[in-house]
Amino acid sequence: MAHVRKTTHSRKTAAHKRASARRSTARKSTRRATSKRWSQRVTRESDALDLKRGVFKLTSPKKIAASLKRSAEHSARRKTGAYRSALSMLTFYINRAGKTLPKTERDRLEKAKLELKRAFGRE
């Protein structure tokens, strides 16, 4: 009798594992697509500020900071101060890129943070 229970239990466990594997596979692919769209939507529709196209691809940290400052000061969509909005958008971009951001580009964007501080007189 104990042997029958064990066999029944193992069948249920195996079936449960297969069903669980199918669900987790489906969930993973959905999450990946959703998160990509989520960050794109935040960048496009965020109330932080209206960004100039390609601002994070500029070659000079000073130019990036100047563009962010100009965008922040002229944006009608931001809810906080200009400095905070500009810095949060720059930090958001760096964080969303994560490990895929090349070291040279990350260094340039980190320098842009310092330039942004200087531009707003926060140093």
Key terms:
single chain, 123 residues, mainly alpha, 2 domains, elongated
Overall 3D form: elongated
Query: Which consecutive residue ranges, at least 5 long each, have pLDDT under 50?
Result: none
Largest sheet: none
- Please trace the helix and strand order, writing H or E for each element: HHHH
Q: What distance separates the N and C termini? A: 77 Å
Rounded Rg:
24 Å
Pairing-aware structural class of the strands and helices? Answer: mainly alpha
Question: Mean pLDDT, rounded to whole units?
Answer: 78
What is the total number of structural domains?
Answer: 2
- Percent of residues in beta strands: under 5%
Short description:
With 123 residues, the protein is mostly helical. It has helices at residues 2-45, 61-74, 82-97, 103-119. The chain folds into 2 domains: 1-38; 46-119, no CATH class.
Structural write-up:
The mean pLDDT is 78. The chain contains 4 helices and no strands. Helix 2 (61-74) packs across helix 4. The protein is 74% helix and 0% strand. It has 2 domains: 1-38; 46-119, no CATH class.
